[in-house]
Please model this.
Amino acid sequence: MSLDSQWEPKIVGFCCNWCSYAGADLAGLNRLSYSPTVRIVRVPCSGRVNPAFIIRAFQRGADAVLVSGCHPGDCHYVSGNYHARRRFLVFKRLLEYVGFEGERLQVRWISGSEGAKFAQTVDELDRKIKALGPNKKMRQEPPGFSGVKDHEG
Amino acid sequence: MRETARQLLREREVGLVIGYAAGSEAYWVTPAFIKEEAQADRLVWNPFCVNSLAKYLINYHHEPYKVAVVVKGCDSRALVRLLQDNQVQREKVVVIGIPCLGVVDAKAAALKIAPGTRILGASVTDGEFLLQTESGTLSLPRGEALCAKCRYCENPTPVLADTLLAEEVAAEPAANIYAEVREVESWPREKRSAFWDGHFQRCLRCYACRNICPACTCRECVFDQTDPCWVAKAHNLSENTAFHLIRAMHVAGRCVDCGECERACPVNIPLRLLNQKVIKDIKELFGVSTPGSRLDEMPALGMFATEDPDEFN
Amino acid sequence: MDNPLKPYPATIVKITDETPDVKTFQIVFDDPGVWDHFRHKPGQVAQISVFGVGEATISITSSPTRKGLLEFSVKRVGLLTGALHQLEAGSKVGIRGPLGNHFPYEEMKGSDLLFIGGGIGLAPLRALIDFVLDGENRSHYGQVEIIYGARSAADLCFKDDLFNRWPHMPGTKVYLTIDRPEEGWNGHVGFVPSYLEEISPSPRNRFAITCGPPVMIKFVLSALQKLGFPDERIITTLEMKMKCGVGKCGRCNIGSKFVCVDGPVFYLSQLKELPPEF
Amino acid sequence: MSVRDFLLTREGLHSWLSRLARDYPLIAPVEEEKGVITFKQVGGPQEIVFDCAPSTLPPKEWFLPSTEELFAFSTAGGGITLQEPPGPKERVLFGLHPCDVRALLALDPVFGGTYPDPYYLGRRKATIIVALSCTKPGPYCFCPAVGGDPVVAAGADLLLTESGSSFAVKAMTSRGEEIIQRYPGHFAPDEEGRGERARQELAGQLAGMFAFLPDLRGVKEFLDGHFELPYWEEVASRCLGCGICTYTCPTCHCFDIFDQSWDGARGLRARCWDSCMFSQFTRMAGGHNPRPTQKERVRNRFLHKLKYHQDRYGLGGCVGCGRCVAKCPVNIDIRRIIGDLKELASHG
Model:
């Protein structure tokens, strides 16, 4: 399908303000090029990332979600990322259990000095998602005229 | 049980006893809220007492009096969770524990017991549930009639009780509790996806699973909020899936595996299979027990250990 | 209305700040032909749509004698009213209606009228006040008295009407009160029901029409009964959560009655027949 | 006078249903999941569950979908454009039991009346209803107690009644007659009144088969005079406040209206089922709630079934299908409620 050939992945990156967002910044400052398919949402902490955010991203057309925070032990709020670690170990398994490709949710610890790691993580994810193709699970179409259909199909 | 309830009410130790009363069919019971000694005769205990009554305690936390509640082993885990969350104050509840040999799945029983039948008495043996009815004794083979959640029981005896109404029942040696979860895990991704899609698309969003759940105690539920609106009111596969995933994560580490959500579901969505997946994973990952088994073990996702497994480097 | 759930496209032409949390929206239909079907009567309500957010039931505060426009005074309390407050003149909205019953203005002819309002509750009364004061209608009605109160002077709605217009109309009196004393306020201080008892209007040949917060309505109704007003001459208009506005969605029932189609205007004699679920 | 009674063999029924499924969207009860029977579009008779008594969910979904688009909107170009979805195609709904047909008759005045609802009425008009007499009542059925009859389906276009190895077919409307004429060769005229005899015989057999028929006499009159009853507190103390009873009820019609839009510029307005059992149902934006506790909500539901609907439309609000009885997780059983109210009434 012609649409498919034009398809570019959409990746939503939830980056913690204190480490990973700074890491992304550093990647930019160092003129490291990384895939433009990632859209970054700055969050105060990886611990702030509610599974509902990730679900909403998939519903609205994300092909992958990257959650990125400070390395364990380095959390600006002491333990936010430790909580996030437990939460996402469970949530990722749950997503796979109901039929998501596990690769579509990536969690990575990236510090403010790891610009290269940020660029590399995004590129790697972009490659994986290009191989997987668009996400269809839970995806919604924008409600509007195109959405009008007879209930009985 | 009736005598215990009478005594508690007579001596004014409690203002209310929450137990079971006979239901409108032989295989159903209905929660009973007994405030007067004379009403205690309405209480019953039989193999159809499947409902978990612990959550009703929340409705009475403003009352000046103590409340007594009848709990089975699985229900006692729910009570522990409510105590841990300070939803219920320990000094305001009297726990009437009933060691339990397993309860009957009403859906299975309904196929065997004619409507309108009255149960006069019941007993449980290793192999069957024996029911005395007006027209003789009826046997329900354990293999067919036992509730799915009782096929392996971690706590036949309540983990917490002020009075036990029977001899303690020893837990069976650990079996492969999560065999069904492992079965689903072993399927190819497409099959898992189709399986859950098939179930979730059927969801009516009646919220019975949430309302009956002892882990769901929020004053304002995220699913009732309109701003922000994390799950739209529309009933469709995407929103229904969002509902079930968010719910599974909200009760992760707090779900006590009482199976009430699955029992309440009017369209037979295997919700226990979803929640058990999370329980199995948190047990394996963080070495915790089934939530509610121990009063001193707080919910797994509310705490952490620096040495937790890490897959995110 | 071939589809009672489909709104008419309309445009906000003017927005007036009444109080810190009440704005009045002047709205006209995009298709002037709609006025041929949309003939409202004082006391009726309409559903205002903010597309993408939803709908809310709002009483029409302009009198049908003011042709070619509709006015709605809206207090910011929730999602939809919040969104409405964000809009500017020129914004597009939808209007569905007119819905519900109306004040019995025919039956009131020849009588004195006593209006008792609190806060945003003056909005539905205003449609009837202007209706009886406008043009030749005025000759059909006797004395018009308006008792109105709000939490503070700033919370009084329709200040222009209250201070500059209505008091100067023939046979019209306006009594204002605020809940607590404040600097610069020389008028009456106290709650509406007690002010009503102070003024003590005669029930003779007079209709009392009241609207306000539920607790105010409750005390006003009992004050009116104490003053000797018969139940058939005490009229109130009720607010309930509504969605469809046409008697189908099932949430605004009080007993067997739906506020959206059988109300919102009720005589006290009717309210007394209904269960106390409002 | 045209013949209105026909006979159809079992094979004839199957071949007719196959033809119907080719010519129309054919909607019939299917076992969607073990133990869950719902009305779905089918490809042929092999998918249909013929002896469900009654289905897990009522067929109301086909008239009042659980989520339904009312219109799409777009604010592109400065104005507002509203576009309504196309009306449904003509379709055949097969296998409704008489209680379900009666439930539609109870819904009709709600969606008709002064403000006719084009969505519901459009679906109603587009639907040919082929009802099926009950051959045995379900365990919680009590339609005779609320004025129903398991072999009478006024409101259907055709009524089929199983009789031995064949089916008696009664055309109840001209639309029913037309559909019979459209499939010549399937239906044999029933000139000897065999169908009528079959229905009477079945009615006689069924009469004694209902396990529990509550006695409604005097209950409405009692409720007319007694709004405030401590009894409702007892019922409410058990109630979970979920929507099972209302969502499985064939006559519950409450809905919510909401908008869906990602950018505010284009989107949908839709409605979806809502339930008077939910605490948010009547809660207003300012926080006031006229039915603040489960007691008021439970009372509202039962009064709606036993009084309000009758007051407003002159029709019973409960058709005795027993679905809420079957599914309530805490065994709040309307048959018992009626019995309890009856007893309260007799004690003054």
